[in-house]
Amino acid sequence: MRSKLAAGNWKMNGTRAALDELGAMAEAAGGAAEVLICPPATLVAEAATKADGVMIGGQDCHAEAKGAHTGDIAADMLKDAGASHVILGHSERREDHGESDEDVRAKCRAAWDAGLVAVLCCGESLAQREAQNTLDIIGGQLAGSIPDGATGHNLVVAYEPIWAIGTGKVPTTDQIGDVHDFIRARLERRFGEGVGRSVRILYGGSVKPSNAAEIFAVSNVDGALVGGASLKATDFVPIIDALNASAE
Ligand code: PGA
What we know:
The structure is a single chain. The chain is of the alpha/beta class. It has one domain: Aldolase class I (TIM Barrel, Alpha-Beta Barrel), CATH 3.20.20.70. It has 11 helices and 8 strands. The protein has helices spanning 22-28, 44-50, 75-81, 91-96, 101-113, 126-130, 134-145, 173-191, 193-198, 209-216, 233-246, and strands at 5-9, 34-38, 55-58, 85-88, 117-122, 155-159, 200-204, 223-226. Strands 1-2-3-4-5-6-7-8 form an 8-stranded parallel barrel, surrounded by 7 helices. It starts with a strand and ends with a helix. Bound molecules: 2-phosphoglycolic acid (PGA). Residues 9, 160, 165-166, 204-207, 225-229 line the site of 2-phosphoglycolic acid.
């Protein structure tokens, strides 16, 4: 069985004072669900020493192992700082930095080479959903962004409809279920049933304490990638608790 994963994406939020939130999150982390926090890169090393029982991840890495890339961070540097995971291909990076599926695939290989688990994001825009292209878009992103060699140990997929991120708008549970079932089928088709079934698929986009339990009851939802509601323990702990309860 796949274990559940509650992942927090702090994005460009938080200075060292924010690490005080990790204590309460760590206390909630002893249950069935694994807990991952991806703080800004400046906080990864300190978070990794403070967060007992909470895994720490980066939010991006460069495709190359080292070199003349001012401002970028290599996967191995994240690993060295104590990270176990890295978010890749988030829609904000695809948009702000023009990242293509090919770029994301190269970053994913770099993450695996460094021994990091890739949390690979996919998701459609509102225009794409309204044009009924959602599954085509997701299928293309999965095919283009995931390298050969995926396993349940090195890959987590996050479905994040762009129109639901930070907007308070959430797809219906049927809409979430349709996409998660589709992602599961694509993973099984490409990597074989055993591997395809072992990769965890997270939902992301306006997850909060009030809607978490309903989302976690959807088939093939193995947890959440949470932005705004992962910044404060008062919001994130109830989400972790809801995920623990869904595993019972
Ligand atoms: P949100 O962000 O929970 O603030 O909508 C989710 C994400 O972008 O990972």
